[in-house]
Amino acid sequence: MGDQRSLGPVGWFAALWLGLVLVAAVAGPWLPLPDSNSQGMCTTKQPKPQLGSDGQPVVRDGRILLIAQPGCDFQRAANDKTAALPSGDHLLGNDQIGRDLLSRLVAGARTTVVIAFGSMIVALVVGGAIGMTSAFVGGRIDAFITALSAGTIAIPGIVLAISMVAALGRNTFAVWLALAVTGTPIIALVTRTQTSSLVRREYVTAAQMVGARPSRVLLREIAPNVAPFCLVFFGLGVAGAIGAEGGLAVIGLSVQPPQTSWGAIIAGGRPLIQIAPHISLIPAAVMFLTIWSVTRLADFFGARLRVRQSLL
Amino acid sequence: MAVVETIPGGASRRPAFIRLGGRILTVIGVAIFVSAATFFLLRVSRDPVDVVGAARGADISNPAVRATLAAELGTDRPLFVQYFDWLGNAAQGDLGVSYLRPDQEVADTIIRALPVNLELVVVSQLIALLIGIPMGLAAGARAGARLDRVLSGIASGFVSAPGFVVAIGLITLFAVRLPWFPVTASGYVGFFEDPWTNLQQILLPSLALALPMVGVYTRVLRSDVADTLQEDFILMARSKGVSTRRVLLAHALRPSSLSLIPLVALQCGALLGGSILVEQLFAFPFGLGTSLSAAAISVDIPVLLGVSTTIAVLFALVTLAADAVARSVDPRIDG
What we know:
The complex is a heterodimer of chains A (about 300) and B (about 325). Helix content of chain A is about 65%, strand content about 0%. With about 300 residues, chain A is mainly alpha-helical. Chain A has a two-stranded antiparallel sheet. In chain A, helix 4 packs across helix 10 (about 260-270). Chain B is globular. The two termini of chain B are about 10 Å apart.
């Protein structure tokens, strides 16, 4: 895919977007935005009428029927055309109960970034340690850990995550833990494969022969060479975790109000998709761009790494 | 999954029935592993008495009421006894009844839901292969050319998009802007009742599930075909004057399909997971995902347990079948 030595314009765009999301997640509360939970005036574009089974607008009492919503009154917004237009106050419009969508997205970025990066950092540390030790120790322990990891991966991760969140409650901690647990065996397997290709290398044998303790060999000789590979999979894991959190939120199994996440905003706008498609569409696009950016960057560093490894 | 043993020469290969037996044991192992993990996880952290009591409006602070409820649900026995009880019944096809709707057998719920998921998996795989194979062939045939870069770019975009995100885009485009398809599948009818309506309802959800897979198939096939085209037998075929189209279809696609078959099976697992979300977004009235998400929110443990185990077993069976197909296509696979 193009030149693999430099990021290129597409790569820079990905890096820029990811930076923007991270800044929004960190600096969110201090940004000059309306409160993400205040239900302001509805400034959504004019809603569309509710369609009947024959595809024609449903007319009742001589008025075209619009789906009534709590809070932000889309019915009134449609009749009162001044309130129905997007304005400079709400760059991306409002959600189903009149909250500023941009503020919601920034608040959601915080949840999503904390959960996705947080869970994968745990998966990276725990899975990396397990995988490295497993390959280093070898024998039955290695076979057992490999079988256990492979067995866990054999279950669709979302199924495992759903059960965990159902058990632990719908909060940041439960989602974070569920994604960390589903991510750990993947990182463990990748690290194990990578480590086992290194343990027979000359420099590792040399270190062992001069009498270095196993912990020193692992940390000083093997870890630095395994870490870059793990980082690539960390990136892919973060991309997966953003999608997984969104998926859990779509089925109502992520953080609960007043906290929000991108997936929760998508799910909230879904019933109104005929009247106000932007509520779901904008967070979906934001989520897609973010996952794409992370994947793109991970792919890029992975490709560079292979080039470097082949030179070794 | 299992430790792969390669026996040189292949003379001492294990007999097929032992291999099959081992595979079936793996499926049973997966079923026990998933059900035990789900059971103990849920039961240690949630007391069914709370769930059922709250749903019935019973006075769950009263110890006597709790005791009667626990006796009725059978949760006053040791956890291990309850688990093996469940496992024994499950082996005979009895997955218990829902906590919240005691008239509903979990097994019946699953049997009612399966056709929806089966249809989603089959239709989306068909769409993905129909789009992915030509895209992969075209990109791999001239790796590095402009067409390859465009197709690879599209593929990497598809790979990044979770099915439910694609679903939102598709609904907005093809159900709201262009009212060609229904916005939801809430009025789902089976294929054999009304094929036309059924296909209209199933097409957008299937497409949402298919597009990320198109990305995966295109990428894998592209690099595979690009590698295969470097082989000597391709040069041989070309020098004999075989047309490019024939070289691609007859000489390059055949060996590449070996890596595609296990991938298709692997994607079935991702599909079962992804269809949970797509079912929810399209508001299917029933389906494994619809049941699972409803049960997760209401902590309906028997339904959660039954559906999770079913999905894991289905996935293990698909993997087993793919393994068998890969073996029959490529006799070099050993072990």
